[in-house]
Design a protein that fits this description.
The chain is an all-alpha fold and 226 residues long. It is built from nine helices and no strands. α3 packs antiparallel against α6, α6 runs antiparallel to α8 and α6 packs parallel to α9.
Length: 226
């Protein structure tokens, strides 16, 4: 029987499917930072603007999905985990897309160029952060299996391993962040002070993107522990 009831439709496929679709959209948004930084490094501001627009569209789609999940998520009595925990997980996921939009928006708005001396480190740093958010997506894609297993057994061990790998990736991103901050410090005296200040802000936001991805893993771990 076909139903138009959004709650029944959600359970027909999976109570977690909208959460998985949302983080996939957030990761799709964040991954656009790679071509964005490539355009910035080439001082191709026309291309950078095109990519920034894609990021803004994807972030808007993620935001709409977030609102839809909030609206249609059943009460806790119909869920295997507390509704408040899922909403907090959703909030963490959404910040990945938000931060990608922040980064691209600020850099395009100021036409921020990355000094040649740190371009390689910056590219590695961005890719490290995105590897962290990609791992968060991989872990979240196991939610259905966790539900099937009753949040016990081999599936829990598998997800715990994924979360451990996520933590390792975030730690590696932290190291990359420290390295690029040090390299920027070495050359900041040769830069206009305001440019140096905003570069430090971008570095912080890239690191924050990875932090948000790790928090997704931490929240998932909490769900398994309940």
């Amino acid at each position: 029987m076909v139903t138009n009831n959004p709650i029944l439709q959600m359970f027909a496929r999976s109570p977690f499917k909208p959460m998985q679709e949302h983080i996939a959209k957030a990761q799709e948004c964040a991954s656009e930072l790679i071509p964005f930084f490539e355009a910035v490094n080439n001082s191709d501001w026309e291309e950078a603007e095109k990519v920034q627009r894609r990021i803004a569209v994807l972030e808007g789609e993620a935001d709409a999905m977030k609102k839809d999940v909030r609206q249609h998520l059943p009460n806790s009595i119909f869920l295997p985990v507390p509704r408040t925990d899922l909403l907090e997980l959703l909030r963490m996921q959404d910040k990945i897309a938000n931060r990608a939009k922040d980064i691209a928006g600020l850099m395009l708005g100021r036409k921020m160029e990355i000094p040649a001396q740190i371009q390689t480190q910056m590219n590695d740093f961005v890719r490290g952060a995105l590897s962290t958010s990609e791992q968060a997506l991989v872990a979240l894609n196991e939610l259905d299996e966790l539900l099937t297993s009753g949040f016990s057994g081999h599936e829990v061990d598998l997800v715990e391993k994924m979360i451990g790998e996520l933590d390792d990736l975030e730690h590696h991103t932290d190291e990359l962040q420290r390295n690029i901050r040090f390299e920027l410090f070495q050359i900041e005296k040769d830069l206009p002070p305001i440019d140096a200040m905003f570069l430090y802000q971008i570095i912080y936001w890239i690191g924050d993107l990875a932090d948000r991805a790790q928090q997704v893993g931490s929240r998932l771990q909490l769900l398994m522990a309940r």
